[in-house]
Amino acid sequence: MFRTFSILAGLVGVAAILSAQAIDPDTFKVSYFSNNQEADQNTVRVTNVGTSGGNICADIYVFDPNQELSECCSCLVTPDGLIELSVHFDLTFNPLTGVVPDTGAIKIVSAATSGGACSAPTSPKAAAGIRAWATHLQNDGSLTETEFLDSGLSAAELGRLAAQCKAIQLVGSGKGVCTCNTENVG
Predict the structure, then answer these.
(1) Inside any domain, residue 18
(2) Range of 137's domain?
(3) 115, burial (CB in 10 Å: exposed 0-12, middle 13-18, buried 19+)
(4) Are 70 and 64 in contact (CB under 8 A)?
(5) What does the pLDDT look like over 51-83, one tens digit per residue?
């Protein structure tokens, strides 16, 4: 009897530890872009599922194929709202280096607003609620759409993204800042 209780208590303890380490799936999203020279084919759509109970910021970090941060910005997304961003015109048109990348990675952190607004994503505070999808122009000319993948957001990764974006803000003279297509904010 004592052995059964001990095993049961151990299993409950392990389950509690694992659930405490679970990462909210609506906090950190990762995807890619390719064939970006075809101006308006690749898009990113972001919605706020309402988990946080209010507006949130989609802090967007765009990396070139050399894994260097090319652009960053923060877009306000209202509960149940949807924004649609052009990879070419909104997310890669103003790169820090002046070279628009043809391929790369996009990371989105779901972050709390500051005073009801979104500022540069240089000190984000993660707040669940973002879901995102991307369309991809394939080499054969077909267009596919995939959901951004959930990824584990560590304090180290959040700090690294924020520091890289802050460096762009400090030295970029306006370069390296992506834009939010406010015409589609809802």
Answers:
(1) no
(2) 25-184
(3) exposed
(4) yes
(5) 888 999 999 999 999 999 999 999 999 999 999
Virtual torsion, Cα 172, 178, 182, 186, nearest 10 deg: -130
Q: What is the largest CA-CA distance in the chain?
A: 71
8 domain residue, yes or no: no
Residue 20 lies in a domain: no
CA 23/CA 91 separation, integer angstroms: 27
pLDDT digits (tens, 9 = 90+) for 86-107: 999 999 999 999 999 999 999 9
**Cβ-based burial of 71 (10 A; exposed 0-12, middle 13-18, buried ≥19):** buried
139 residue type, one letter: N
C-beta atoms surrounding 173 within 10 Å: 8
Q: How far apart are the first and last CA of the chain?
A: 59
* Contact assessment for residue 131 and residue 83, using Cβ atoms and an 8 Å cutoff: no
CB 25 within 8 A of CB 150: yes
* Total domain count, the chain: 1
Sequence-distant (≥ 6) Cβ neighbours of residue 43 within 8 angstroms: 84, 85, 86, 87, 134, 135
Give a yes or no: residue 137 inside a domain.
yes
Listed residue (52, 154, 58) closest to 106, CA to CA: 58
